């Protein structure tokens, strides 16, 4: 019930320079659980923003009244990576030794925010739900830790997809929960939900 909402939410997006440079933003109004209405959209050209500083932007909504006030900072990304299984970042013994040294007890208080990192190998899924009429699905997998989100590529027409990807996340809160969700890609429509598992970091 507000025309001037304040969300004060912070999200971390992993921007890779070889990907799309535009950040797409949509504002929605929700009447009840079933009815939603698009209130406007806007875009931010990430590549055009100065790096290593916080940029305060007032973005007018396209074809609709109103604007969004946002703070966007583009900074070098540390500790986040996506790689193939054959080039696993922790596969090198010398790198393992460096990491052990970095997180040993005597170095615990050098950087309070650097709690550690989580490496997840997403191998495959088995016996997924068939989401299309041909008895197949186009599955991809999304991994979320706090406000960090990474995803695999889509394996088309397959109920037993193999992704064989390695994801590395920085850990900001040891009480966070890793959520792994499998979706079916559905063209321009929102993806269909195929299943989910939640893994508390403290259980690892």
From TrEMBL:
Classification via SUPFAM superfamilies: C2 domain (Calcium/lipid-binding domain, CaLB) (SSF49562)
Keyword flag Phosphoprotein: no
UniProt-listed GO biological process terms: regulation of neurotransmitter secretion
Keyword annotations of the record: Calcium, Membrane, Metal-binding, Repeat, Transmembrane, Transmembrane helix
Classification via InterPro entries: C2_dom, C2_domain_sf
Gene3D superfamilies: C2 domain (2.60.40.150)
SMART domains from the UniProt entry: C2
Principal location class: membrane
Protein localization: Membrane
UniProt entry tagged with the keyword Repeat: yes
GO MF term set: calcium ion binding
GO cellular component: synaptic vesicle membrane
Membrane topology summary: Multi-pass membrane protein
C2 domain ranges (all copies): 1-59, 93-204
Family statement drawn from the similarity comment of this UniProt entry: Belongs to the MCTP family.
Record-given protein name: MCTP2 protein
Native species: Ciccaba nigrolineata
